Amino acid sequence: MRYLCLHGRGTNAKIFEMQTNQHEYDFLEGTMPWELDPDLGNLVSENDETFALFDENNPLTALTAVDQLNSFVEVEGPYDGVIAFRQAVGVVATWMASQARQKKPSFKCSVFLSGAAPAVDYNALQKGIFVQLDPRALDCRIEVPTAHIWGTNDQWKDAAEATSQLCRADVRSALVHQGGHEVPGVGSKEALHETLNMIRRAILQSHAAG
What pLDDT sits at residue 201? Predict the structure, then answer.
């Protein structure tokens, strides 16, 4: 299976690649230089550049990020699935919701890790404003199997939960672990095991859907 992977704010594609190691992955890097996420200082040297996908105070940079994602998928795709981390969750969910509204395909399944930005209305982005999508709006519902993982102590947990509510309930799996903004690792074996089960479930559901 081919997966497209998008990193969060203050990191880079190399760091994300270090954190994943199965299947075939393409890593899409942000284009806005950004200071290193302080939680990731042990993964990179002081000379490594880190990036953001967009500036959360500037809607036009978010529009650019969504358009860049669309162009990348058109050229390099199709992809079986996507793995989005932190800020990238908002970009990917915004694009997928826009695709759904236009009745266009996106991915067969999606994994959203520690979402730190909500999905917003693409049409509003084009006008230069952020408008968070209403999960009750069925025309932009994300229909494919999804896995959502975030921490109960994550300062952005509301954004992560809002993204999950945009997704079709019967093929949506969610795990709220006891940590913060991190993805469960070997230090939390139970949460790691549950995370892997959520991801496997989304993949199997996508296979069943054909």
Answer: 95
